[in-house]
Amino acid sequence: MIVDPTRTAYSTREVAEILGVHEETIRREVQRGHLKAAKLGRMFIISKADLAAYYEAKGGGRLFEDDAQE
């Protein structure tokens, strides 16, 4: 999946595609409090900043090329 650098939030499905894991894995990480997300109706929305922080905490380094500018 090509990550759009102008995006500021992602669905659990999009995050799963970005990280190469199953969507249910992302939902579990949100429910366990390991990945911050906002609930919008029945969906979870994950901010770009929270996704980057989660990825870095898991030892993945920088996820977005423009992270250094944020």
UniProtKB/TrEMBL annotation:
<feature type="domain" description="Helix-turn-helix">
    <location>
        <begin position="10"/>
        <end position="58"/>
    </location>
</feature>
<dbReference type="InterPro" id="IPR041657">
    <property type="entry name" value="HTH_17"/>
</dbReference>
<protein>
    <recommendedName>
        <fullName>Helix-turn-helix domain-containing protein</fullName>
    </recommendedName>
</protein>
<dbReference type="InterPro" id="IPR009061">
    <property type="entry name" value="DNA-bd_dom_put_sf"/>
</dbReference>
<keyword id="KW-0614">Plasmid</keyword>
<dbReference type="Pfam" id="PF12728">
    <property type="entry name" value="HTH_17"/>
</dbReference>
<dbReference type="GO" id="GO:0003677">
    <property type="term" value="F:DNA binding"/>
</dbReference>
<dbReference type="InterPro" id="IPR010093">
    <property type="entry name" value="SinI_DNA-bd"/>
</dbReference>
